Amino acid sequence: MSARKTREAATGGLRAPSFIAGMAPQTKGIALLLLALMMFALMDAAAKTLGARYHTGQVVWARFAVNAVVLALIFRTRLPRLIKSRQPGMQFWRALTQILTVTLFFLSIRYIGLAEAAALTDVNPVLITLGAALFLGERLGPRRLAGIAVAFCGAMIILRPGAGVMHPAALLALAAAFTYSAGALLTRALRGDSVATSMLWSALVGTAICSLALPFLWQPIAAADLWLFIGMGLLGTAAQGLLIRAFSIAEAGALAPFGYMGLVFSSLWGFLFFGQLPDRWTVLGAVVIVAAGLYVWQREAQLARAKARAER
Q1: Which of 55, 127, 269, 299 has a C-alpha 20 to 30 A away from that of 308?
Q2: What is the number of domains present in the chain?
Q3: Is 278 helix (H, G, I), strand (E, B) or coil?
Q4: Torsion-angle region of residue 193: left (phi > 0), alpha (psi -120 to 50) or beta?
Q5: Is 122 helix (H, G, I), strand (E, B) or coil?
Q6: pLDDT in tens for each of the 312 residues of the chain?
């Protein structure tokens, strides 16, 4: 099987938009990542708008339900085969972490700005590093520990505990970073399932679990809001596909520094749609978190290169 076909099999046949297709692989991957982050932030803006008028559980349900419908249509001819997992238990728990992440984040942005919530969830790269050491046996040296400690200092600058200036809902965004990191670690531990299988499990399990609560919190949807519910789900699905495609064609190390652009997009949409700009403490905390994340990423890259040289 050719390298191209192998990549397409792993990603379920997801392809880059035509206007990006002619770029070099690394450049293409970065462009796809930035497009995905812009769409994720726009999805969050739609969720914040809907959260002011509907129960958060209903908004979360729509996010997963539209995702499930779109994926079922995309993979309709291969659905019975792709839905089979070699590790169904692991897939279930991974999907559960994603439900928790979306729910916690959507709850938080009902009360705080998109930029504040995004800045707090950006501690997840260092949390993943910590979790990999605790649960996957990866080495955790003093430099990685320093990066983790600095990232949490950045989070505390944003939260300013005891000052009484940050809404308690900010803690929900921080909790979302923990559940996201747990899901990432479960993804690392998965073996034998394609990305398409993981996407389907996340969407279908998320829809099924959220549907159990739906009768107790359902509110009639105004005709003017229907497009916003559908658009939110479509944005999440498209962004997820672009993100997977980005990591399938470019090296993770080349993409990692650009992951923090999501914070820029969240600030942009927060300002354009809600007139919210992060205060100086949020900006300072975000800079500290991003610096810590980039430091940890650089350290990971150095260790990876050293390991590659040793294996030659």
Answers
A1: 127
A2: 1
A3: coil
A4: beta
A5: coil
A6: 444 444 444 455 555 555 555 566 778 888 888 999 999 999 999 999 999 999 999 999 999 999 999 999 999 999 999 999 999 999 999 999 999 999 999 999 999 999 999 999 988 888 887 888 788 777 777 777 888 888 888 888 888 765 555 788 889 999 999 999 998 888 888 888 888 998 999 999 999 999 999 999 999 999 999 999 999 999 999 998 888 888 778 776 667 778 788 888 999 999 999 998 888 888 998 999 888 888 877 777 776 677 667 766
pTM metric for this prediction: 0.83
Residue numbers of the domain that contains 282: 24-310
Tokens 């070699």 identify what position? Answer: 86
Q: Please check whether residue 31 lies inside any domain of the structure.
A: yes
d(CA 113, CA 234): 22
Burial label for 308, CB within 10 Å (0-12, 13-18, 19+), is exposed
Residue 60 one-letter amino acid: V
By the 8 A CB rule, do 71 and 203 touch?
A: yes
Q: Long-range contacts made by residues 211-214, C-beta under 8 angstroms, separation at least 24?
A: 211/61, 211/65, 213/57, 213/61, 214/57, 214/58, 214/61
Cα distances (Å, whole numbers) of residue 201 to 35, 43, 214, 277 = 24, 21, 19, 36
Sign of CA dihedral 118, 119, 125, 127: negative
Considering the domain boundaries, does residue 104 fall inside one? yes
Q: Is residue 30 part of a domain?
A: yes
